[in-house]
């Protein structure tokens, strides 16, 4: 090759990169590794929850016919009201054991389609609602090797389909919204058995489209509830049933809620000993106005490529817009132990709903919230498996992200369709798990897993770090295990405890003193994953119980 064409090519590439905003990261090397864990678990993972015994409860729905996993010992579900099978001898839920990479079938008794849930302070998964005979059910799953689903009929005051749940400081769950439910209620039922009107959900519902289901719900640091639906949000005093703040509409006004499904996270909470703690919410992706109607007609409009970030604790909060390197609808947002956010799964056009998504987005994207705006996004290595409507993702204790699901069909269609029903499980390993970081990766030796910790007290975490230690880059984080479905991880929360002091004990051993969260407004009582992060590289987590 002559020198002239080569120089010309270099100039063209330089012009191409120079013409792009710096946050596109076209020149950055992609990171992250993918691993196929199970080719098929027999059930498509529409819902996913990590438990304190390092097992993940996965479930789909009951009304599509038989799954690909039989129930054990000739067991069958007899349900006269099921719309597909009155007698069904296949499983629609599984328990996946992370440590052994094995799974076992579970039996749900009623339809859990598009339901919600959260981990209670006891460590039990309490899960609510669904479709048909499941719409007012409350279900409980306890973490044990032989446990199965237990159901409470009429455990809900209202029918809940596409609702969102959150754990409250006193340990109850609040259940917000659902299809044609412009209200909220609490579980478990005590004195408060009624529903409470929430006109905001009616105001954000678009006729014939909705665009406000599975609202994004976060507990603010003042104990009130941030609720986002469609393209805007409120702060709700749920005890007084009073809106205490109304947030502005996201610039552009495009919808971010189901079926124009974006995703959202409460960004890591920091400076927890400060008198006034700042809280920020990040909403990413979604679909432009009118996308759902157009998709139903066979025209698939490109997804939104923007994120909106807001300081919800500010007296005059405003949305700050950012541009993602890849447009995404039906994506998931997962908080990683080091405080970064992983955007994963989803489509480049269309919306949620049967057959309504196109152009799978195979590349995850890392978002670094502490970087300067314009330098926060990094595109990661792609999977080979499309994860569209009804996909899920969950953080594991070892720092990997478990990925499953994708069924854009009314039934299980494994062949002869554009995007077959996906029964596999994968794991995405962020770059921080690369072996080249092993010398700076902390290993927690104390406290022991399952230790109890108290509010507002000193906690000492002992670690081994074989390489050189940068004490000012050592931090302890706590992550609440989230209930993931329909692109939203309910009750997802990360607290940065930082470090009050790092003491070297010799033989590569260090004690890290931190102060635990001071109240249930910051972290409700219950089980958390505790990590030590050194220079951005997290340890494996341990389970602790905050009480």
UniProtKB/TrEMBL annotation:
Keyword tRNA-binding: no
Lineage: Eukaryota, Viridiplantae, Streptophyta, Embryophyta, Tracheophyta
Location relative to the cell: Secreted
Residue ranges occupied by any Glyoxal oxidase N-terminal domain in the UniProt entry: 46-432
GO cellular component: extracellular space
GO molecular function terms attached to this record: oxidoreductase activity
Keyword Signal recorded: yes
Name of this protein: Aldehyde oxidase GLOX
Keyword terms: Oxidoreductase, Secreted, Signal
């Amino acid at each position: 090759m002559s020198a002239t064409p080569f120089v010309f090519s270099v100039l063209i590439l330089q012009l191409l990169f120079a013409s792009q905003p710096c946050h596109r990261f076209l020149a950055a090397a992609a990171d992250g590794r993918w691993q196929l864990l199970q080719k098929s678990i027999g059930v498509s993972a529409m819902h996913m929850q990590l438990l304190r015994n390092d097992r993940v409860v996965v479930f789909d729905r009951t009304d599509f016919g038989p799954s690909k996993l039989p129930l054990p010992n000739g067991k069958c579900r007899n349900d006269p009201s099921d719309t597909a099978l009155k007698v069904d001898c296949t499983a629609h839920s599984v328990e996946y054991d992370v440590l052994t990479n094995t799974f076992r079938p579970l039996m749900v008794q009623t339809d859990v389609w598009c339901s919600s849930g959260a981990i209670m302070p006891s460590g039990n998964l309490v899960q609510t609602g669904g479709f048909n005979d499941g719409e007012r059910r409350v279900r409980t799953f306890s973490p044990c090797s032989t446990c199965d689903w237990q159901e409470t009929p009429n455990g809900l005051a209202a029918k809940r389909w596409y609702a969102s749940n959150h754990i409250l400081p006193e340990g109850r769950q609040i259940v917000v919204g659902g299809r044609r439910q412009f209200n909220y209620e609490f579980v478990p039922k005590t004195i408060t058995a009624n529903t409470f009107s929430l006109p905001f959900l009616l105001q954000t519902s678009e006729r014939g489209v909705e665009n406000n289901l599975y609202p994004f719900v976060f507990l603010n640091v003042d104990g009130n509830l941030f609720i986002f639906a469609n393209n805007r949000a409120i702060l709700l005093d749920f005890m007084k049933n009073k809106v205490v703040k109304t947030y502005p509409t996201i610039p552009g006004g495009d919808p971010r809620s189901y079926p124009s499904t974006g995703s959202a996270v409460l960004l890591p909470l920091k400076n927890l000993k400060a008198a006034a703690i700042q809280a920020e919410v990040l909403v990413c992706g979604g679909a432009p106005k009118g996308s759902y109607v157009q998709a139903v007609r066979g025209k698939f409009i490109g997804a939104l490529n923007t994120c909106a970030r807001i300081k919800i604790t500010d007296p005059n909060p405003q949305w700050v817009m950012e541009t993602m390197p890849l447009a995404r609808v039906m994506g998931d947002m997962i908080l990683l132990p080091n405080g970064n956010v992983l955007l994963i799964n989803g489509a480049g056009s269309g919306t949620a709903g049967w057959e309504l998504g196109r152009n799978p987005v195979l590349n995850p994207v890392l978002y670094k919230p502490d970087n300067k705006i314009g330098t926060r996004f990094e595109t990661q290595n792609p999977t080979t498996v499309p994860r569209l409507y009804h996909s899920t993702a969950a953080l594991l204790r070892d720092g990997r992200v478990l990925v499953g699901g994708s069924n854009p069909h009314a039934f299980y269609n494994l062949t002869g369709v554009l995007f077959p029903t996906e029964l596999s499980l994968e794991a995405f390993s962020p770059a921080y798990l690369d072996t080249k970081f092993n010398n700076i990766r902390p290993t927690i030796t104390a406290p022991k897993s399952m230790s109890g910790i108290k509010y507002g007290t000193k906690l000492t975490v002992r670690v081994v770090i074989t390489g050189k230690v940068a004490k000012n880059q050592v931090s302890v984080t706590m992550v609440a295990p989230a209930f993931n479905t329909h692109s939203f991880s309910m009750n997802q929360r990360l607290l940065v405890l930082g470090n009050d002091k790092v003491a070297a004990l010799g033989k590569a051993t260090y004690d890290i003193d931190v102060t635990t969260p001071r109240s249930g407004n910051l972290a409700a009582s219950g089980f958390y994953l505790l990590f030590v992060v050194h220079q951005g590289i997290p340890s494996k987590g341990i389970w602790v119980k905050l009480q």
